[in-house]
Each structure stands twice: as structure tokens, then as C-alpha cells.
């Protein structure tokens, strides 16, 4: 079966530097099981092994066949798949120059970061807070759980995140992949962090570790405005 799949691969796919092109019309003529094997083979030839590619990733790649051109998904280990007219393309992602930003969050007060936006913070007693959910750009945190300086920055290697109500911690990179956040914008998303512990992925989720609960006495309110 492996030899047969390799033969079909050579009929359906071709290389162009660090990209693999698969003819969508030819790919669609294959049985689903063969299609999945071909996707795995594309990934393996690019990366050198199959590690990191799970069943859901394969299905996501195959879903591109019926989507509009330019549709794209991110795969583990800096590989992406996209549809370009009659081709399914899998390729390594080229590194881009990252514009880093870093600022200590003023609590209470206002923190402005050029090109990123403004953060306004206040510390309130729990009985002053009437409702906890007023939009994705305003969040409430248990102030007493905040130990250390809160830094506004973009992502760094080793970042850990415990998304609210999802249970457990994961690498920030895994969160981005799970949420299907486009790779191109990940470096520009503002993060609130204490060391490598992410407090809030701004515009997405806050951390479960700093949420307001029945024992909360003081609430840190953070409001973000794009700039």
C-alpha cells in the first residue's frame, strides 16, 4: 500500500523548492483513505517525519479542497496548507521580521503602546462590580492573584496559557493553533503576562488562573482600546 501511495503521490503532486503542490482534481478522484495518506506523505516529505500531524489536521487540510481559493490553515511545526485555484499547496512558513513591543502595565492608570493601543486599569472592591462580562476588550481579574509586574508584550518562546474554563495549561502556540488564529497576526496580538504565564490573550481569552471567584475581594479591571 505504501508503494502504491508513493506512486499516486508522484502522479498527483510535484515539488517546487520548499513547497508541494497537489492537483486538486486528481486528488479528488482518490478514495478518502488514499487522500489522507497523501496529505500525511506531503507533510512527511516537507518535515522529514510525521510527528505532530494528527487526524484532525489531515481532515482540516482536506476540507480546503472545497473552499475558496486562498483559504489557508496552519499545521504544527511551522507548516501551512492552502488552496490556490486548482492546487492544494503545503509549504514551510517563511520567517518574517517581528516587531517586538514591551511595556509594564500601569495599575491603576493608563498604558499606551505606539501602534498597539491603550490599556486603562482600575482596582475596585468586589461589591463595586455589577457585572463581569462586558465585552472581549474589557476583562476582570482577581487582583490578589496578580503577583508581580504585569507586562504588555507580544509572544515569546516558552509562553504558557491556561484558557478560561477549558481546564489545564498549554503552550500559547497550541492555543493559537486550536483557535485557528492566523499565523500572520500572532506576533501582533497584545498579551498580558507575568513572566511566561499569560494573563490575557487580548481579544480572545483570559487565563483561568486569575479569574474572579467567590473568594475575590478586589477586582482588577483592564480595558483595551486599539490604537
Put the structure in a nutshell.
This protein is of the alpha+beta class and 227 residues long. The protein contains five helices and 15 strands.
Describe it:
By secondary structure, the chain is an alpha+beta fold. The protein has two domains: 91 residues, Chorismate Mutase Domain, subunit A; 125 residues, Phenylalanyl-trna Synthetase, Chain B, domain 3 (Phenylalanyl-tRNA Synthetase, Chain B, domain 3), CATH 3.50.40.10. Helix content is 21%, strand content 32%. It is built from five helices and 15 strands. It has a five-stranded antiparallel beta sheet with strand order 1-2-5-4-3. Helix 1 crosses helix 3 and helix 3 packs across helix 4. The longest helix has 16 residues. The N and C termini lie far apart (56 Å).
Which terms would index this structure?
227 residues, alpha+beta, Chorismate Mutase Domain, subunit A, Phenylalanyl-tRNA Synthetase, Chain B, domain 3, five-stranded antiparallel beta sheet, four-stranded antiparallel beta sheet
> Which whole number gives the mean pLDDT?
92
Q: Classify the beta-strand content into a percent band.
A: 25-35%
CATH class of the largest domain: Alpha Beta
Helix content: 10-25%
* CATH superfamily annotation of the largest domain: Phenylalanyl-trna Synthetase, Chain B, domain 3
CATH topology of the largest domain: Phenylalanyl-tRNA Synthetase, Chain B, domain 3
Largest sheet: 5 strands, antiparallel
In N-to-C order, the SSE pattern is HEEHHHEEEEEEEEEEHEEE
State the end-to-end distance.
56 Å
Low-confidence stretches: none
What is the multimeric organization of the chains shown?
single chain
Strands side by side in the biggest sheet = 1-2-5-4-3
Q: Structural class, please?
A: alpha+beta
Shape: elongated
Domain count, please report it: 2
Q: Count the E strands.
A: 15
Amino acid at each position: 500500500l505504501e508503494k502504491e501511495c508513493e506512486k499516486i503521490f508522484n502522479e498527483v503532486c510535484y515539488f517546487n523548492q520548499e513547497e508541494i503542490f497537489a492537483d486538486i482534481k486528481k486528488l479528488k478522484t482518490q478514495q478518502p483513505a488514499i487522500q489522507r495518506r497523501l496529505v500525511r506523505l506531503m507533510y512527511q516529505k516537507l518535515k522529514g517525519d510525521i510527528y505532530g500531524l494528527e487526524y484532525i489536521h489531515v481532515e482540516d487540510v482536506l476540507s480546503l479542497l472545497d473552499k475558496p481559493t486562498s483559504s489557508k490553515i496552519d499545521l504544527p511545526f511551522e507548516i501551512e496548507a492552502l488552496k490556490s485555484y486548482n492546487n492544494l499547496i503545503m509549504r514551510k512558513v517563511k520567517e518574517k521580521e517581528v516587531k517586538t513591543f514591551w511595556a509594564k502595565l500601569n495599575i491603576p492608570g493608563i498604558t499606551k503602546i505606539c501602534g498597539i493601543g491603550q490599556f486603562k486599569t482600575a482596582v475596585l472592591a468586589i461589591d463595586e462590580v455589577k457585572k463581569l462580562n462586558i465585552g472581549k476588550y474589557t476583562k476582570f481579574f482577581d487582583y490578589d492573584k496578580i503577583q508581580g509586574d504585569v507586562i504588555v508584550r507580544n509572544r515569546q518562546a516558552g509562553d504558557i496559557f491556561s484558557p478560561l474554563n477549558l481546564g489545564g495549561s498549554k503552550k500559547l502556540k497550541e492555543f493559537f493553533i486550536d483557535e485557528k488564529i492566523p499565523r500572520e497576526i500572532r506576533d501582533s496580538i497584545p498579551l498580558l503576562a507575568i513572566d511566561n504565564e499569560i494573563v490575557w490573550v487580548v481579544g480572545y481569552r483570559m487565563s483561568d488562573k486569575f479569574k474572579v471567584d467567590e473568594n475575590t475581594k478586589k477586582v482588577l479591571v483592564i480595558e483595551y482600546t486599539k490604537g
